[in-house]
Design goal:
With 224 residues, this protein is mainly β. It has a domain of 156 residues. Helices cover 13% and strands 54% of the residues. It contains three helices and twelve strands, in the order E-H-E-E-E-H-E-E-H-E-E-E-E-E-E. Strands 1, 2, 3, 4, 5, 6, 7, 8, 9, 10, 11 and 12 form a twelve-stranded mixed beta sheet that branches. It is globular, with a radius of gyration of 18 Å. The N terminus is likely disordered.
């Protein structure tokens, strides 16, 4: 079930003609910052455990990651070994606080507007994950002051079977963004993933994972 927990921010390869200007501007700001690299701390709170790690892109390989604590305690040797083996297997990942995939966004609709915020709903088209995206309703909040992302939520509107022998009754991802104050660039602040359903008919899926990102520091800019 790991791939169901992958955090995905949906950024289109191209924006449709009817894409609102504010949405286009907010997404372009996110893309424009993709060459920056930050050190940060991430705290993952799950049903089975709480884990705090630090990430520094100036280090090499698995040394970029430091396991700080598990359930509020210093990690054991076994936990350290398991953690670094996991990071070594995924060394090709650049350690950014979230992944960006290209996809198509459509059916934008203005939901609400205040003095500070504007909210749109939209849907995602994806042949690869069609069963999932057809039932997925997405909403996007944008700060009006600087046209940067504030929040994205994705939630299924009815039960869905994204893969064989898996049925999801609930699937919701919420992503909250902050602004890195020295530059004003958007950075992820928190994600909340809620998954509930069944696998193989009898195995219950009941997962609730929160990830908090903080202590951001701009440490380098990758080569273009």
């Amino acid at each position: 079930m790991r791939r169901l927990l992958v955090f995905i921010a949906v950024l289109p390869a191209f924006l449709l003609a009817e894409t609102p200007i504010m949405v286009e501007t907010a997404l372009n700001k996110l893309a424009a910052d993709s060459t920056n690299q930050y050190s940060y701390t991430k705290k993952t709170i799950a049903t089975e455990s709480t884990r705090t790690i630090k990430y520094d892109p100036t280090e090499k390989g698995s040394d970029r990651w430091e396991l700080v604590s598990v359930n509020g305690q210093p990690p054991t040797k076994e936990e350290m070994k398991s953690f670094y083996e996991e990071k070594a297997k995924n060394e090709e990942k650049n350690g950014r606080s979230f992944s960006v995939v290209s996809d198509q966004m459509r059916d934008f609709s203005l939901i609400s507007e205040t003095d500070d915020m504007i909210k749109y709903s939209y849907r995602v088209e994806s042949e690869k994950n069609k069963k999932m995206t057809e039932k997925l309703l997405c909403e996007m909040d944008i700060y009006k002051s600087d046209t940067s992302l504030a929040e994205i939520t994705m939630e299924i509107t009815e039960p869905v079977s994204p893969m064989v022998s898996v049925k999801l009754e609930e699937f919701r991802v919420q992503m909250k963004f902050d602004r890195y104050q020295p530059t004003g660039s958007p950075v992820i602040a928190q994600t909340q993933t809620r998954i509930k359903g069944k696998a193989m008919l009898f195995k219950k899926i009941d997962q609730n994972v929160m990830e908090k990102y903080y202590d951001y520091q701009l440490v380098k800019k990758t080569a273009e």
